[in-house]
Amino acid sequence: MRKKLLGIGLLGILFGVILGSVAAMPWWAETWDKGQAVEDRPYIGIYETSSLSQEEIDGLLYMREEEKLARDVYLTLYEMYGLPVFQNIAQSEQTHTDAILSLIEKYNLTDPAVDEVGVFTNPELQELYDQLIVQGSQSLEDALKVGALIEEVDIKDLEEWIAKTDNADIIQVYESLISGSESHLRAFTRTLSTYGVSYEPQVISEEQYQEIVSSSMSRGQMGRGMKGFGGRR
């Protein structure tokens, strides 16, 4: 009887540990279980952890602050103009920079981002932020064009960083961020059109731009990011 009770006790402890692990599961693990990415909520799959190349490290550190730059610019422009599109997309950009942070923490890297809005460790991004705020402060139309430009830059940079990695969890997050940036680019161009302004792409090609804005669904939702689930490929 004593052995039987001991066995029941061990099973109870094991069951409690399993329940506790499930309850503590982060949102990206829950999304993984559903088998698809939710737009603007990038996730990190259950991949084999491996060492990163210097280019992969550089990409994560840079994109952590670039996504923060987008958030900070939109928060500042929202304070200037009170247009909801800036506040809404700033919230999405928070999830983007948090997704990069999750990878930085996973690989035990030092986070370059600081909490203060408009302050950056990377001097290139600091200069870009300052320039964009000056440009966006000229008029509401200019502010919306700044938003569209930021999303173009995000798309181009993420595509370039994807080409420099074979790490599946990094690719997964980057591709999810591209999907979000495509959605944001459509939102800014639609808002500009309500003011009678037709946006012209400045970074990506006209062909790519038209493909993005003419689509009602981001490419990521139509299969982007479902490849490479097995770890490094």
From TrEMBL:
One Pfam family hit: DUF2202
Domain DUF2202: 56-215
InterPro entries according to UniProt: DUF2202, Ferritin-like, Ferritin-like_SF
Name of the protein: DUF2202 domain-containing protein
Taxonomic lineage: Archaea, Methanobacteriati, Methanobacteriota, Thermococci, Thermococcales
Domain of life (superkingdom): Archaea
